[in-house]
Fold this sequence. Notes:
Layout: H1 12-17, E1 21-31, E2 41-47, E3 51-56, E4 65-72, E5 76-90, E6 96-104, H2 108-130
Antiparallel strand pairs: 1-2, 1-4, 2-3, 3-6, 4-5, 5-6
Amino acid sequence: xxxxxxxxxxxxxxxxxxxxxxxxxxxxIQPETDTTEGALIxxxxxxxxxGFGMTVATVYQPTDILSVTLxxxxxxxxxxLAEVLRLDPIPYPGGTYRLHxxxxxxxxxxxxxxxxxxxxxxxxxxxxxxSA
Length: 132
């Protein structure tokens, strides 16, 4: 498979096989059809090679396709498409939701870049909290 070809879609089981970490990242989420370049805002994101979860104030529908842009350290901007799996209301603060989305149509090369950064976040976290 060419590294530019989209990787096959991970199944639910596969998505859980990717290591997940919660990290603060500059992120921009917008509908796939929105081509404006809004600001990236640092948010707490639970991310893996299969998808991400985070708190949002925008209402999305399951199967909506989103353009997700992240600023990754020493890499710059990373953009991928994601499909909304579900949106769970959060009781406090009102008007917020937990967004659950999976990455779609991501090339194998892009998925590997993302996974390398996730492992780097984990390594940095462990070094910061457990080194003497």
